[in-house]
Amino acid sequence: MATEIIINVMPEETRVALLENKVVTEVYIDRKKKRDLVGNIYVGKVVKTLPGMQAAFIDIGLDRAAFLHASDIFPSDPAETMVEPEESVELEEEEADEGEEESEKASRLRRRSRTPIEELLQQGQDIMVQVSKGPLGTKGPRVTSYVSLPGRHLVLMPGVNHVGISRRIEGEEERSRLKDLMIRLREPGAGYIVRTVSAGIREEDLASDMQFLRLLWKDILRRKTRATPPCLLHTDLDLSFRIVRDLFSKKVNRLLVDSKEEYSAINEFVRRYLPDLATRVHLYEKSNMIFDDFGVEAEISKALGRKVWLKSGGSIIIDHAEALTVIDVNTGRFVGKRDIEETIFKTNMEAAKEVACQLRFRNIGGIIVIDFIDM
Predict the structure, then answer these.
(1) What confidence score (pLDDT) does residue 329 get?
(2) What would the mean pLDDT of 18-38 be, rounded to a whole number?
(3) Which fold has domain 41-234?
(4) pTM above the 0.90 mark?
């Protein structure tokens, strides 16, 4: 599969597109005036506990209070932290923006707290949290106290006593090698996910990434001791560098960026941390707009509309509600050569494939209802 990363830098925003076989599959946008909150770490203050919902609202300094469920609260009692008898457990890791955020992965590594929320938190109490889902509509962000810090090769999960190996790393010999390395290198009480790009990694590179994450966590803890809640403690890298860290690998044929300044910064970053991939970073110098040249702009325009046309002439209609997304499939102009059953079957098959693409491209999750044509 031919994979390309296209980066468009403008004064007010940075946009990134992922192309697979020249088809736009993902788009990321980072606006300077409205940065993505996911991954940010705050020291907040408990505003209110809700025993009936087993949740609390946390003031983290934003317009709306953040929502914290009891199951996302790191237990004060170490016995409540899930600890498997094995030193290492297998985890299926999704890459950075493929649905599940890093903080959600950390949250999966624990059982639901059995302690009532009113015993875990008190109004006015300070608590360190990380944003796991950004605000949506009238709702504030969702947060967790299970912090995770992603690096190039590892994800650090402080206090979670686990080592996870990505299922995408194949070969029992390589998995066993990585498992042994992690058990030997990691410090007690720190959990790690070994990311997919770590396949074949040298021990010194793994140790270097581990040391970087360890120092980053210590720096966050130092800031916490001096902070007055609510206060921002840590933000992730800018979008371009997050993409390089999380998505730029040997599977990517090239990375194109249309800004000389951003190209120089990315090139320096890649030469330092990913020298084997330095020749795949290119500056886009044509007069055309880069997103127009690769058809990304047209795909973004399509994604903003309710109706998506199918190649056969049928269509799907995507509607959003507060609690779910509803997708309706229509035959439109397509008429089968033989009978109506053929028309319906082909339209439904084409719609199913297109729906999967649209869900990924539009980053739609939660409850999704699809009304296929009756067969």
Answers:
(1) 92
(2) 86
(3) OB fold (Dihydrolipoamide Acetyltransferase, E2P) (2.40.50)
(4) no
